[in-house]
Each structure stands twice: as C-alpha cells, then as structure tokens.
Amino acid sequence: MEICGLVTDKNESVPLKSISVQVLVQDHVATVSSTLQYVNEEERPLEALFVFPLPADAAVCHFSAKIGEQEIVAEVQDRESARDQYDDAVSSGQQAFLLEESAESPDVFRLSVGCLSVGQNAAVTIIYVTELSVQADHSLRFCLPAVLNPRYTPAGSGAGIVSEISSGCGSVPYTLSLSVHVSSPKPISKLESSCSLDPLVFLHSDHTQATVNLSPGHMFDKDVELFVFYQDTHQPSAIVEAGVTTAPPGSLMRDPVVMISLYPEFPEEVMSSLATQGEFVFVIDRSGSMGDMMHHGKGAQMRIESAKDTLLLLLKSLPMGCYFNIYGFGSDFKSFFPQSVVYKQETMAQALKRVKEMKADMGGTEILQPLKHIYSQRCHPDHPRQLFIFTDGEVFNTKEVLDLVKSHAHSHRCFSFGIGEGASAALITGMAREGSGHAQFITDTDRMQPKVMQSLRFALQPAVVNISVDWTLPDGITVDTLSPPINVLFQGQRTLIYAQLKGESSGGSEGAVTVKYSLKDQPVTNQLHFCLKPTEETGLSIHRLAARTLIRSLEQEERSGAADVEGIRSRMVELSVQAGVSSVHTAFIAVNKDSRQTVKGPMQQRRVSAYAESDDDVYDDLDSPVEAAPEPQKDLLLQLVSLQKASGCWDLDATLADVFGKTEDELTNQKPAQVDGSVWATLLALIWLYGCKREQQVEWQFVAMKAASWIGSQKVGDLSQCVCAGNVLLGCQVTKETLGI
C-alpha cells in the first residue's frame, strides 16, 4: 500500500499551499466555498490526488480550476463518461480535473488534480451546500473538518478506499483563512466557535445580518466549529426559493421550492411521564484508538474512560423492570450477557463490574457483525428496542451497515455517538437516520455525558405515530413533497421538509402546512403559515439541497433492490446534472483543452490527505492503544451516582458521607428520628444534586427522578422537616417542591 505523508522525512514539498473558505449561512442552511492553492515543485510533471471530507448530507454544486490566468469550470456528467474523458485528457498531456463521490462512503470526495507542469500553480474551488444541525442549546452547528482519518479495513476485505487516503506527520504546510456571513429572518443573537474569531460585525440595525472572520494564525490542528444563535430559533420557519427561468418547464430547478423547518411541541404532561419500559442495548467501540485522549488539555481522559463514565450514568438512569445488554466491539465483539436481561440490582451490579474492566484492546473497527448479532435476537413485547452505538472510527462498509440498520427500522430506534475528530459523519448520521433515532458528535473538550443523556431522554420519550403532512395552497398551485415521509419526531428536534411548488396562483399569496400525529393516543396538530413570494437572495441552495434529498432517496431505492434499477439510475443522473449537484453515479469533469503539451518523463502520482496531519506509520498502529493517562481527580457527581441502587435509593454509609465531605456519624446524628436510614440518605443525595450540581442537571436528571419516585413510594412522616434538616447539614437551600417528590 502506497503511503505518502504531507511532509516526508526527506522534507519533500507537497503541492497544496493554502486553503481559503467563505461560508454563507442562510437561516438553517450554509453555502461553503473553498479554494485550494497548489504548486508543482517537483522536477517533472505531476498528477496529484487530493482526498477530503465533507458533511454527510452536503451537496457539491460547483467545481472549477484556475491554472495560471485561465479558469476551467467543471460540469456534472455521468460518472463513467467523466472518468473516460479525464483519462483521455491526461494521457494526451492536457490538464484535467475530476471530482467524484467515493463509492464506499458519501462523506469522502476525491479530487484528481491531473497534469501540472513543473513550477505551475493551480487554484481549485469547490462549493457545497449543507443543512446545519440544531444543538441542545438551540444553536446551529457548522463544522469545517480538520481530519480525514484513514479508515479501518478488515483483513481480506480488499476495500479500495484506504489506499486512496494518506497520512502525514509534522506541521501542516499550508494556511487557512475563513470568513462567514450570516443572514436570517430571525435576529442573530451571537456566534461562538471552538477557535478564536475576530469580533462579530452586524450589518443591519435589526441584527438579521452579520459577518465574522477566523482570527489569523489558525493551525488547523482541530475542526473549526461555529455555533450560530438566533432569537426564537426553535420556532418553525419557511424559506421559499425562486427557480431558474432557463430550466425545462415542470422540472425541479424551474419551479419554486419551499423548505419548512418544524419543531413539534409536546405537551408538558406527556413529557413529564417518561417511559418505564424498553430494551436498551449499548454498543461500545473498544478498538485501539479508543485509548486516545479526548483532547490534549488539562484533565483530559482517554476516550474509553469517558465512555465508561457515560455507561455508569446510563446504567443508573434506566427504569426498573426494563431489559438491557452491553456489547464491546473491535475486530470481533463480546456481550456482557448472552441476551438482554431484566434490569434490577443484581444485573446492574454485574454490568458495572464488567464496565470497570473494559479496555481499548480489541483491534480494529468492525461494527457490522455485532449489529447482525443484536438484530438476530428476538424483541421483547412491550419493550421497544433502543440501540446506543459509540464509535470513534470510520468503517470501509458504511453503506452495508446503513442498509442493515434500515432493514430493522421497524423494530428499534438507533442513537449514535461519534467520538473525536475522526468519527465518520456519514456513518453516525446515517445510522441515526435509518434507525429513526438521533446522532451526536462528541469532539475535543465536549463532555460526553450531557449529549448522551439528551439522547436517553429522546429514547425514553413516547413514540410519535400516525404522522401526516398536509398542505393548504391557493387555487392553481399544487405541491410535490420531495423529502421522505417523516417517521420519527422528538421534542426539541428540527425536521426539514422540502417541497416543489407547481403552477400559478390565481390570487392568494399565502400557503400553510399542517403536521398531525398521535402522542400517547392523543391527537396533536401543528400549523405554519408562509408567504409564497420567494425569499430574497438565497441563490439556489434550497433547490440543491432538495435535489440532494431526492437523490439520496433514489439511492436507497436502488440499494434496496428495486425492480427498475436502470430507470432509478437515469432519474438520479438527470437530477444530478440538472441541479449541478454530485451523486454516486455522476462526477464533475473539467479539461483544459488549450494546455495540450507533450509530457516529458514519467508521471508522478502524489496522494495528499486533506486538512490535517495524522500519525506516522498510521496503518501499522492505527488502532494500537496509547499508554495509560495519569489518574484524573475523582468526579464527585460520578461517585455519588455509582453508589445509587437500581431502585433509585442510596444506603446511609461512609462512602456516601465522603461525597458530601462529611463523616458517617455526622450524617447519622442529624437524621430525623422518624426517618429510615435509606430515605435520609436518598433525600441528602437529592438535596446535594440540586444544591451543588444544578449546572449538570442534564446528566443526573433520570437518577434524580428515580430517587424522587422511590422516596414517594416509602412511608415518610414530615418530609418538609427532613428537607430542612438536610439543607442545614449540607449548607444548601433547596425546597421540597424542587426535589419533585
């Protein structure tokens, strides 16, 4: 396998010199334009390949190359004819550029830069559109990835993609500049980033437009993450985008397209009664790379240790009487129990003992076999299966994994967690999408626990069923919904619907969309009114994302063995060419026909990995564990949680007293006479959580709910007096009402 680093130990130069990125954020959608500067510093002509990552649901919509003073703009063509054209051009000494989606995974694109003569410069520009994901704090996240990890390929699989992606070592030999322009119907409240930014500049007094730049000197050693905060961002909204008058009549690109962003409102009384049933299966990546540190700052943990702390919280948060199991996987897999077991004190204690012994020692990242094993187990009636998958890696067979999850979508929900910079967005978002669940990315200094507990809250929510979407439009206008049917709705989650508006209105200028569903046997209705007049200055980003959504649906049809494969494929190519967005069956091709020259000497092949350096000898120790980290300080919250019984109570003992910074005698002496020791201990734990750890409530919310319900089931005399005594002992001021008893 050929491996060339960004900078070799002989210090050979790499053709890439700089990356310049412009981001235009429009409400929930971003258009990203990246320009890559190359120079051939070899002694002879060079054919270079550049491999780089994109967000999983991005749609590439422009690709051009400027060589010297001449610019070549690429066009989308059927993939095979684009490849043939590229090969013909290069062999006859013409400069050619080819951009195609990787067949193995849709978030990897390969850029063949073709023939560059000695000393020549080339600037390549790629533009893509993408949806921004909504975070727990209602911000929208944009990420420019710094890493394309070499993907793990099992021995003997013969997968082609790994040989295309190279590693490097040392510092990144190119520079990055990034500017961002944000516009929205809603006022912008702030922008935050994982990297240092120049101050935000508002362009209008109503704060609906703003610009910001990345501060100079960014080393591109980590992802660039931006978080956009709008006022009322959780409110539903609509953007109507005008089509192109030159496109064929009746086509997607000719008609206006509307993008509806929906947030279902769940009644408070439904949300307060979370499910007490379910089968919870936790699948933990134990490959060697899980031994890497979560980040390089003070107090950093190994990924596997962070996952173990998270498992502790999850296990303590499960409802009594549900079913659960835990799988570890690497090159093979192991489960704690032969099949899922009933959740009670004994099984929880057994599982926690096994969790403590878990290490990142199971080789590579092969997720398909454990999933097949889980799906082969029978489901328990009245206990819906909830799958939680944690991985920091990338697999060679993403599409096969997604097809498997999709084929079992009727019997489970899948919640996925990507850990670290190298987790595959296509794998993580794809598993959640196909499994009607939710995806989370845990990068750099993120704490894993709050994100995972948010997903557990989703898993415990009652399922929304009988979902229907109805349109009310003026006479003369019909609607063609392009998005697949909505099969899952969560509280606080955005759902995007793309639709093509056909025909001419005979009068009215307003439309409405009504979403109905059943929640715990109660009918719920949400309605949004929107103006049919196109929103100004959106370009064609909504059309392109709509085309991308349709193409993705067709790809799934094709993979699921539909009868008319040829018809589906030609519809995909037609859509892709018309909208100018990439698909698995098309590619962008550009040939500089004026550059015909004889190529002297053999052609050099250079493989350049995008955006970041990785470890040297990456394939030899891709998944080998790193040496043990220094013992971090004990986390008092995790200590307290680890002492809770499965039923929700605590014992009154020295280990509990230690968490509060007290002795066992101090706890016992202050106990009101009429109160049982376990009730007193559990009450103190609740008071401490609400009084000292309020900011981490998302992590201990279920632990506290179990504790409160356990106390409620006990015979307690004067509860108010007990709470007062507990407040005095712990130096807190928590009311009985706050504790939810």
From TrEMBL:
InterPro entries assigned: VIT, VWF_A, vWFA_dom_sf
Gene3D superfamilies in the cross-refs: von Willebrand factor, type A domain
Annotated PROSITE patterns: VIT (PS51468), VWFA (PS50234)
Domain VWFA: 279-456
SMART domains per the UniProt record, alphabetical: VIT, VWA
Domain VIT: 1-130
Superkingdom of source: Eukaryota
Residues spanning the membrane: none
Stretch forming the signal peptide: none
Any matching Pfam family: VWA_3
Name under which the protein is recorded: von Willebrand factor A domain-containing protein 5A-like
The organism of origin for this protein: Cyprinus carpio carpio
